[in-house]
């Protein structure tokens, strides 16, 4: 009992400001000495926490900030634009195969669909698929990588070998077979997203495993074990927050990869099916008319390129912001 009381008395409460220690967000007064440089002056310095440092570093990356703005505009246009546009994606007009005009900014297809409404609907479904894939694959990959990296031994070997096995199998071939069997019967984009996510978690798993193999040897993990913290608490309370940088960066890149994979599946006929649509399906439908009616092919293709590029640039900016060894910011 005496030993326990002594340890409690010596414990430092992190929430209590300590004299002589900078607390994040707390202003600190600094006095410059006088002399030849002029009279003595006093000014205030405000310490930043980790989140503020990351945000500040990210906003110094001009290309990433610009890409984030463009992506948010594309995302907002896909989800809120149809509310203000006077054509629905399923509406049939009397304007057949019309080129871009004020009435139809992206033209119409052979049966009178307004292509702007079609592209907005396709972008909405593609973004829904990509975000769901990123959420599921990042969550599952993070948990699997955390278990493998923390426990090591036979658990690590089993997860690592299973991950390597899945990485050797052609992704598109598996997705094509599964989506043909499942998505065609379901007729729903949700199942397409589940199939892509089920085979997209391996890269995140390997990244998280590598980070955990390094973090588990740190002093704060040994201290948590010594104080009796459970493995679950150490993993979810201490290690995963410290691995947040690589996880967030890989999640953003997964969004771009999912967009491209969904496009490839829809292009070969194994993705989203009619009467719904997606950007990949629109590209597939317009590929045959790329010479005679190029607007059917190039407008949805341009939307895909913009989403993929902006997400990649945002991921690049996040990587620079989370990297503690980064000495300069590009762009």
Walk me through the structure.
This protein has a two-stranded antiparallel sheet. The protein is built from 13 helices and two strands, in the order αββαααααααααααα. The longest helix is centred in the middle third of the chain and has 37 residues, at 115-151. Helix content is 65%, strand content 4%. By secondary structure, it is mainly alpha-helical.
Element layout with pairings:
Elements: H1 2-10, E1 27-32, E2 41-46, H2 50-59, H3 62-84, H4 115-151, H5 153-168, H6 171-186, H7 189-198, H8 202-215, H9 219-226, H10 231-242, H11 244-267, H12 279-286, H13 295-322
Antiparallel strand pairs: 1-2
In a nutshell, what does this entry contain?
This protein is mainly alpha-helical and 331 residues long.
């Amino acid at each position: 009992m005496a030993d326990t009381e002594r340890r409690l008395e010596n414990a430092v409460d992190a929430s209590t400001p300590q004299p002589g220690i900078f607390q994040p967000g707390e202003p600190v007064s600094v006095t410059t000495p006088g002399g030849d440089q002029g009279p003595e002056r006093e000014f205030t310095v405000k310490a930043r926490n980790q989140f503020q440092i990351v945000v500040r570093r990210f906003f110094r990356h001009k290309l990433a900030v610009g890409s984030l703005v463009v992506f948010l505009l594309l995302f907002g246009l896909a989800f809120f634009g149809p509310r203000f546009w006077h054509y629905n994606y399923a509406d049939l007009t009397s304007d057949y195969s019309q080129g871009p005009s004020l009435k139809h900014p992206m033209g119409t297809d052979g049966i009178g669909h307004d292509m702007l409404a079609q592209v907005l609907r396709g972008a909405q479904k593609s973004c829904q698929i990509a975000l769901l894939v990123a959420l599921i694959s990042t969550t599952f990959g993070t948990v699997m990588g955390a278990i493998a990296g923390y426990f090591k031994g036979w658990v690590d070997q089993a997860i690592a070998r299973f991950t390597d096995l899945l990485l050797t199998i052609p992704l598109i071939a598996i997705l094509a077979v599964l989506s043909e069997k499942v998505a065609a019967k379901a007729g729903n984009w949700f199942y397409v997203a589940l199939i892509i996510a089920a085979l997209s978690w391996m890269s995140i798993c390997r990244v998280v495993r590598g980070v955990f193999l390094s973090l588990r040897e740190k002093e704060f993990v040994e201290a948590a074990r010594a104080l009796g913290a459970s493995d679950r608490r150490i993993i979810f309370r201490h290690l995963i927050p410290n691995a947040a940088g690589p996880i967030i960066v890989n999640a953003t890149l997964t969004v771009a990869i999912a967009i491209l994979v969904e496009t490839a599946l829809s292009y070969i006929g194994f993705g989203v099916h009619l009467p719904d649509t997606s950007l990949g399906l629109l590209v597939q439908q317009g590929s045959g008319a790329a010479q005679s009616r190029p607007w059917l092919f190039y407008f949805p293709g341009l939307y895909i390129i913009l989403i993929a590029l902006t997400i990649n640039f945002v991921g690049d900016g996040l990587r620079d912001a989370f990297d503690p060894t980064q000495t300069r910011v590009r762009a």
